[in-house]
Amino acid sequence: MAAVTALNESAAAASAGRTRGMQAGRRRRLNVFRYVVFTVFGLFFLLPLLAMLRFSLEGAKLGTWSLTAWRQIASYQNTGIPPLLSAIEITLELAVITCAVMLVLLVPTMIWVRLRVPWLARTIEVLCLLPLTIPSIVLVVGLGEIYNRIQHYSLSALMLFWVYVILALPYAYRALAAGLGAIDVTTLSEAARSLGASWFTVIVRVIAPNMRQSILNAVLLTWSLVLGEFTIAYLLLYTNLQVELYSISRNTPNAGVLFSTSFAALLFAFALLMILSYVGRRRRGRG
Amino acid sequence: MEALSRHYGPVVALDRLDLTLRPGELIVLLGPSGCGKTTTLRLLAGLEDADAGQIFVGGKDITRLPASKRDMGMVFQAYSLFPHMTVRQNVAFGLRLRRIGAAQRDKRAMEMLELVDLPTQADRYPHQLSGGQQQRVALARALAIEPQVLLLDEPLSALDAKVRAQLRDEIRRIQLDVGITTLFVTHDQEEALAIADRVGVMRAGHLEQLAPPTEVYSRPATSFVAEFVGLSNRLAGEVRNGEVTVRGRTLPLVDRSTPDGQAVALVRPEAVTLASDSASDSGPLVGTVIAVTFLGAMSRVTVDLGDTSVMAQLTTADASALPAGSRVQLTIRPDPVLVSASSDPAVPAVEEEA
Fold first, then answer.
1. Chain A: residue nearest B77 by CA?
2. Could you read off the pLDDT of B309-340 as tens digits, one per residue?
3. pTM of the model
4. What is the ipTM of this complex?
5. Residues A9, A15, A19, A24: what is their CA dihedral angle, to the nearest 10 degrees?
6. Is the CB of residue A195 less than 8 Å away from at least one CB of chain B?
7. In 3-state terms, what secondary structure has residue B138?
8. Consecutive H or E run containing B97
9. Do B145 and A195 touch (CB under 8 A)?
């Protein structure tokens, strides 16, 4: 009896050991595969960026290093046209205004629809996703008339914020909808109401603070959109960052400042993303 | 609340409901899903509007008043604490809205947390607390504003059994302590019977009976109440002169004015006793045990009488002497019973707990 048991046990142990060995082997192969994929795709994304960085640090002669291109961000003047810096300023201001308007417009509306008129949700969703389906050229044709009128009153590129809010709608909507879906909006608002809160308090002090992460997501997406927008600004004859970069490149192809500015914009977006994940981590960290 | 009605399209949620809560009492609304008990609560809270009828609190008509002005404290089933605020901030929220100063707010918040036995958790966030603790914070938050009425919408349904029983007694203790008029909604009859001053059993938008728990249990007003609250055996019998004869035994009736004729008597399992009987072959009250359900201290024994089956409730010790297959003799204790009209073929002979 004991001998049979011992035999069974050792057979079981052997097969268990073999399984463990197989599993360890499989795991090793999986890890190797992961690292290979990570490296390949990492290089695919990083190499062009590194090349751009290197080029922006290029001096007068090939192979030398220089910070000229980076210093030129502040001082570059395209022939006869306002300096690069003002285009940067305008674009940053546009981004801030667009984000603010988008938030003030979308957040209360989406919360309100969710709470009080849920049958409108589908309609709002379709409306918000519409700008994605319309090509920029078509948008410009439609906007042309309107901007002719606007330019009677103001020639500032800041007037572009009307269009940019619309362009940002699909991305911001999706980001905010995800955040809204993660919380029990109805119960929270009912609890707040029963304690005496007005609808304004419910939206601003109860619901929105719980959407912090998705609001930041929406801001990041909107910000990136505004920083990178070219077609509409160009066709409506405004000068924003991308339009300015384009005209610089027409006059002086391969100007170092083009690459340093683009890389700076990229760094900026990256910094925003870092802030976002830091805030997100802090919230979870409180657990 | 008077003649309160509410319908959602063709579905009638409440049909001319009249309900009066006396100061300081705890009324539990009990009923199956869809009976209108939650609708009643939400109408009182102002979270829904009545289609007809009026609501008075302290003599004042508040029917048209919005929820934020009604001065009621409400505890929801789950997830009602504000996740981005600490426990202390949650409890103080209502006070903040009433522009009460920070020091006083804090003092009151801590008082409330002491009341629900959670003073050490004041600076934690809701997700760091257990379900039971969260509901206690919700209770503290609702009471902090010193409302006129406390409303509880199935607050224990999302908790596990042990916590539920504990919290249920605590809620009752606090309610008596503070002396606040309370409306409690649940589908769990054990909860209802345990803590209520009066139980309101509801069905399909109507209040079937509103009475103290003992009365609802032992003198149910309608057969629905008798069958919803506790278990009932349905046994065919004949009514004569205010008594009903069931399988050879005569039992008194709750309602002595029931007209003579065929009827179905509703007999509680605890009124049925069993004795082992291997001797006699048959009789109206002789049968075979077909199932024994172990419930802890008590056990439920199902006996097959040939043409119908009957449930009896015995101590587990007694039930262990009667395993499945044994022949038993039944005795029915002469407690007053309710009868319902005998023509109801859709209803099974033995009603399970709803």
1. A187
2. 888 888 888 888 888 888 888 888 888 777 77
3. 0.77
4. 0.79
5. 80
6. yes
7. helix
8. helix B87-97
9. yes
